[in-house]
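In the design runs reported in the main text, the only information available to the sequence generator was the tokenized backbone. The following block is the verbatim input for one such run; it is reproduced so that readers can re-run the procedure and compare outputs position by position.
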């Protein structure tokens, strides 16, 4: 009996503890403090404390009645009954407190719903996808959907590209009247620098808190840690870095029909490229009996010999201008003059189209379509998209270009080129954040990556596009003027390249569909892209933090002209002339340029000190 009573008391005490804990924690965490009548909770807690005291007294009495006589037992039972009554009262009080808390939570939810019912005005500035097409009309269905489903009044302004767009943004910044959400513009292709300048002026709001509010968009658009790092200053993320346009889309190709005609295998080394270039030049690969072909064709795009010959520099481990592993110029590497010597050997042997240093891009493209050379570096769409390939196809229906892997150099190096990964950057103005618009901006951006994706990227399903059995987007069977590809429809998808597309396979295959050539061969543009992307590229995204020196024009001219003179044989390439070239660059501030570049890479977390 004594033992039984003791266990009842222990149980009672445990129950009281649980009730006390529940009462306290309900008040502390689940109900917002300002909306709860704390007196109710206080009363519940006091009652529970009383019950606990009574129970403790009962336990003391139990100890005192160790001998177990009837009178003591009666007292003990009376005490227990009192404790149970107190417990019952405490339970009831806690129950009241919980009801009060639930009512408060309801009131809060109602208040939040009322707040959300007030539409949020959001002003968006972005560049156009098709500049000549103009903005969507005022009665665009998307505006109504955004209002109905997101409770947002969207004002969408298309801003100009280049200097005009930059000036418009700068004027708004100067007037402290930036739009809520906007695309950064830079004529010098340095949108990160443009963002940083506005951050320094206090005009841009951090977006760290917005990222968790848009999980799907973050997964599809903001998934590159380096891109996030590049818009993070002082530990806070200030930019929303959209995915860059299709990366790694250019590559090396060779005329398979010419290889077959001469009984040659595709080259895998830089040496084999040379041999085949000689054969293509000297052995009449097109079989017309005339000496009218070259091995290699190209043109200069960028500094030095240009990035279209990075596959040659890459075979020597020095593609591009910069060595991002240590922040120096690649010309410091002793393999650089070796690569130039190889290029010079192609020029010297006359196996590269001799007009390459002066050709424009269009002139170069006209030449491969005329069958002038059999090895080249080209953009996959410029080569394989139906409209681009058609003139070549008509001239040479039996011809076929195939992809080449990055050729290997004497030390085993092989790189296709440098991937720079520059994409659009959007930002939220501090003014918008101060007005409490951050959450609504995140809601809009998340919607654009989820429910609004197809509407803003292609239009209305069944009207402007259809999804076929393979999951591909097509315009089959649609009214031609309503198809999302029609000129008339371009105003309705102006946001697609700025805020909607993220290089999904569906997007890319919609832009680069397969088709039949003149003689019935199936062309797969996507296969060319996939192969090019699979090749070894140097991660050159650090170029985004390297700013040109003040004497950039003089520096670049000396840099480029000097390299070209060596390659064309106008200056003999030897140890002395190479040293003189490097000295000339140093006199133009090359060392300081490198030191600044290195510091910028270190500051951006892209390079260790
Ligand atoms: Ca010929």
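Verbatim output:
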């Amino acid at each position: 009996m004594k033992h039984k009573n003791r266990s009842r008391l222990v149980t009672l005490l445990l129950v009281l503890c649980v009730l006390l804990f529940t009462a306290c924690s309900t008040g502390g965490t689940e109900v917002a403090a300002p909306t709860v009548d704390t007196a109710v909770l206080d009363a519940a807690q006091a009652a529970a404390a009383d019950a606990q005291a009574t129970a403790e007294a009962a336990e003391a009495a139990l100890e005192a009645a160790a001998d177990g006589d009837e009178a003591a037992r009666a007292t003990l039972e009376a005490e227990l009954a009192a404790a149970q009554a107190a417990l019952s009262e405490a339970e009831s009080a806690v129950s009241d407190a919980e009801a009060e808390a639930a009512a408060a939570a309801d009131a809060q939810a109602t208040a939040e719903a009322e707040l959300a019912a007030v539409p949020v005005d959001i002003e968006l500035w972005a560049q156009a996808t098709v500049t000549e097409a103009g903005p969507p009309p005022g009665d665009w269905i998307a505006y109504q959907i955004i209002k109905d489903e997101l409770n947002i009044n969207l004002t969408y302004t298309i801003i100009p590209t280049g200097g005009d767009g930059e000036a418009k943004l700068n004027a708004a910044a100067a007037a402290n009247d930036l739009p809520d959400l906007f695309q950064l513009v830079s004529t010098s292709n340095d949108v990160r620098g443009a963002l940083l300048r506005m951050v320094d002026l206090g005009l841009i709001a951090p977006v760290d808190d917005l990222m968790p509010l848009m999980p799907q968009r973050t997964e599809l658009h903001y998934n590159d840690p380096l891109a996030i790092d590049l818009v993070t200053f002082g530990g806070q993320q200030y930019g929303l870095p959209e995915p860059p346009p299709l990366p790694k889309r250019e590559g090396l190709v060779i005329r398979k029909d010419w290889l077959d005609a001469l009984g040659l295998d595709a080259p895998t080394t830089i040496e084999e490229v040379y041999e085949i270039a000689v054969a293509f030049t000297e052995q009449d690969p097109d079989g017309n009996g005339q000496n009218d072909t070259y091995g290699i064709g190209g043109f200069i795009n960028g500094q030095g010999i240009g990035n279209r010959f990075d596959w040659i520099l890459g075979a020597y481990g020095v593609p591009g201008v910069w060595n991002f592993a240590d922040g120096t110029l690649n010309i410091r590497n002793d393999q650089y003059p070796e690569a130039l010597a190889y290029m010079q050997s192609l020029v010297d042997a006359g196996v590269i189209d001799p007009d390459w240093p002066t050709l424009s891009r269009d002139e170069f493209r006209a030449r491969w379509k005329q069958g002038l050379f059999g090895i080249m570096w080209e953009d996959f769409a410029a080569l394989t998209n139906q409209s681009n390939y058609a003139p070549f196809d008509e001239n040479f229906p039996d011809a076929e270009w195939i992809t080449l892997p990055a050729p290997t150099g004497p030390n085993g190096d092989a790189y296709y080129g440098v991937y720079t990964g520059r994409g659009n950057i959007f930002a939220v103005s501090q003014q918008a954040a101060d007005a409490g618009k951050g959450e609504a901006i995140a809601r809009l951006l998340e919607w654009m990556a989820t429910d609004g994706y197809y509407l803003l990227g292609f239009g209305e399903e069944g009207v402007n596009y259809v999804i076929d059995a393979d999951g591909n987007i097509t315009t089959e069977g649609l009214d031609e003027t309503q198809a999302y590809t029609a000129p008339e429809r371009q105003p309705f998808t102006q946001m697609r390249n700025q805020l909607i597309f993220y290089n999904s396979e569906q997007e890319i295959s919609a832009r680069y569909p397969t088709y039949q050539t003149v003689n019935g061969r199936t062309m797969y543009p996507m296969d060319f892209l996939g192969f090019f992307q699979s090749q070894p590229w140097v991660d050159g995204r650090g170029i985004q933090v390297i700013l040109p020196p003040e004497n950039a024009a003089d520096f670049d001219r000396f840099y480029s002209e000097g390299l070209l003179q060596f390659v064309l044989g106008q200056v003999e390439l030897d140890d002395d002339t190479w040293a003189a070239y490097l000295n000339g660059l140093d006199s133009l501030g090359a060392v300081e340029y490198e030191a600044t570049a290195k510091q910028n890479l270190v500051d951006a977390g892209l390079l260790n000190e």
